[in-house]
Amino acid sequence: MSSILKYKTKILILILLICVFCVGIVWLNASASELQYEINTVNNKIQQASWQIRSTEAKVSIRANIASLEQKAQELGMVRAEFADIIYLKGDSESVEDFALALRENVYR
Length: 109
What we know:
Layout: H1 2-63, H2 66-75, H3 99-107
């Protein structure tokens, strides 16, 4: 009778080990699925950021185009400065206390 009891005990321990192993596999699968979900979420955010970067770069290149800048300046009523209109301040002379006043004096002299 004791050999049958030992045999049943070994079978029961083997069944318990198999159950623990199966539960471990299920837990690992669930953990892997959760990690894969997080990876996909991060990849989607990266892809959206990449699209935003490309969109912003395209907008910058369009707005930085010289022709479009000149057109926008004309729409705003801006004119290109002539050489005679450019004022140079001398840096080697006395320091200018009031830049706006010095500029006004040079423009309206």
